[in-house]
Specification:
- The protein is of the alpha/beta class and 500 residues long.
- It folds into two domains: 9-237 and 474-497, P-loop containing nucleotide triphosphate hydrolases (Rossmann fold), CATH 3.40.50; 257-460, Rossmann fold.
- Helices cover 30% and strands 27% of the residues.
- It is built from 16 helices and 26 strands.
- The strands form six sheets. The chain has a six-stranded parallel beta sheet with strand order 2-9-1-10-11-12, with helices on both faces. Strands 15-13-16-18-26-25 form a six-stranded mixed beta sheet.
């Protein structure tokens, strides 16, 4: 017996970073648990963290996480428009999973050409809405950016196209919750306002009973129900959407654990590569570009970058490059992923100036490879065999450029880090167990790889292998239960089935 059709639901915010992405993920899991077939949707996302669909196309990582919470494969129709910042003013535009050029902010938000993008995101929504029930939409930033009203693709115009019930999410932890909620609603016109069906207060700290009079005030002021007050949590781990949170993960080396330093690049991308290690009980992982902290690490990981040559210049300027080289000469393991792999080589060239004005720079010189930045972006999911481990591992590639051994260098199979399963193709370079690089994102989600990386330091900890996939599933369930405990779910279901 099929479940009742629910209206689409959109979680829109009073501002950025109020928790929309996490709440949307939580409701994806709730609807799945309740027997529905939900799917996430965000018309436009701006993030350096991206993911590759099974078809080899690129979407925002947040929607991939939400799809995982919903228990379905991710698809470009869940995030048809992705903006990947390449500087403070310009972004690469990824449309339906493929690069569609670069644009500065002014040109992007001009009215000319917006209808073409609007048609594309609406068509993506229409396709996904035929396959899933309900669609859990996410807004972007504030839903009341009135200066961008005519060019907005992602907030109320999308909700109106979808016929979605909109829940306004506000972050009480940052303060000013009454003004942000009331102001957001009052800045909407009458047609927009009728689509807002309720309010969620997020990230509450303290005794909720003290806020009960505030709930009544908000409801009277806005003429809308407060559907829940969700407490701040510290014991549920869901991937963050952007790298702002990395600034809080800078800590010095700790005793009794394997210390892993992730180099804090200015244009760091796909930091989710390190989530499994961050949760592994054997590991103390921290982000840093401090030379002293780098040299105290047992393992140094160099992450991906959206602007590899610019980050290489910065590493040399702040001394981190020299610290990495010194640490490796003293026995520290160094591993590079994607842009980090490119940085470890002898040279990086950009003859077409795709990243900027720098045409060529020497790399860190840790691996005997050279990289050429190229216009065509490689995006694909891969299964691979890691070294001598049994069974296939999984990951994905997102990179612009090719990396090859320098002339005369060993190119035997043993010099590669990974063998791509089912294809006559190899990946990465393996110099020895202390020096290696790969293009595969998600490589550290595989227990065989993590165990190999940590094995030389087993004497520092007696803890066993960490199962990241099981851990993630547990976290989605914990998030769903946390939300269930603190929202009026029957009232939300009533809103999603009301035909008035």
């Amino acid at each position: 017996m099929s479940k009742q059709q629910l209206h689409p639901i959109m979680f829109a915010g009073t501002g950025s970073d109020v928790g929309k992405s996490i709440i949307a993920a939580g409701f994806c899991r709730i609807f799945k648990q309740d027997g529905y077939s939900p799917a996430p949707f965000k018309a436009q996302n701006m993030a350096l963290n991206s993911y590759v669909t099974p078809e080899g196309l690129e979407i925002g990582r947040a929607q991939a996480v939400q799809a995982e919470a919903a228990g379905i494969p991710c698809h470009t129709d869940m995030n048809p428009l992705l903006l990947k910042p390449s500087s403070d003013h310009t972004s690469q535009i990824v449309l339906n999973g493929k690069p569609a050029g670069n644009s500065n902010a002014y040109d992007y938000f001009r009215k000319e050409g917006r209808e073409e993008l609007r048609r594309a995101v609406c068509q993506a929504y229409d396709r996904i809405a035929k396959r899933y029930n309900p669609i859990v939409l996410e807004g972007a930033g504030s839903l009341a950016e009135i200066n961008l009203r005519e060019s907005d693709l992602v907030n109320l115009p999308m909700a109106i196209h979808a016929g979605a019930d909109v829940i306004l999410v506000a972050d009480i932890d940052r303060g000013g919750v009454f003004a942000s909620v009331y102001g957001s609603i009052m800045l909407l016109n009458a047609n927009e306002r009728q689509h807002i069906k309720g309010i969620l207060i997020n990230k509450f700290r303290g005794d909720i009973r003290l806020f009960r009079p505030g709930v009544k005030m908000l409801e009277e002021l806005c003429g809308l129900p407060v559907l829940g007050i969700i407490p701040y949590y510290t014991n549920i781990y869901i991937e963050e959407e952007d790298s702002l949170a990395l600034q809080t993960k800078q800590a010095q080396a700790a005793g009794g654990k394997i210390n892993i330093a992730v180099i804090l690049l200015r244009h760091l991308s796909n930091f989710t590569d390190f989530n499994a290690l961050e949760r592994d009980p054997r590991v103390h992982l921290f982000y840093t570009n401090n030379t002293g902290e780098i040299e105290k690490a047992d393992i140094i990981l160099i992450p991906g970058s959206k602007s590899t040559l610019a980050d290489l210049c910065e590493l040399r300027r702040n001394g981190a490059a020299q610290a990495i080289i010194r640490a490796h000469s003293q026995g520290t393991t160094v591993m590079g992923i994607c842009g980090g792999y490119q940085l470890m080589g002898q040279e990086i060239s950009d003859p077409e100036h795709l990243e900027g004005q720098i045409e060529k720079l020497p790399g860190l010189g840790l691996l005997p490879v050279v990289t050429r930045i190229q216009k065509e972006k490689v995006t694909r999911q891969v299964k691979f065999r890691f070294r001598h481990a049994q069974g296939d591992c999984q990951g994905y590639e997102i990179h612009m450029g090719t990396t090859a051994p320098v002339n005369g260098t060993n190119q035997a199979p043993e010099s590669h880090l990974n063998i791509i399963s089912g294809e006559s193709r190899t990946d990465g370079y393996f110099k020895d167990h202390t020096c290696m690089g790969t293009y595969i994102h998600g490589i550290l989600d595989n227990p065989a790889v993590i165990d190999y990386l940590l094995k030389p330091f087993a004497g520092k900890t007696g803890k066993t292998t960490f199962d990241h996939r099981t851990f993630k599933e547990e976290q989605y369930d914990k998030l769903a239960q946390h939300i269930r405990n603190h929202v009026d779910l029957p009232q939300i279901y009533n809103i999603l089935t009301n035909h008035d």
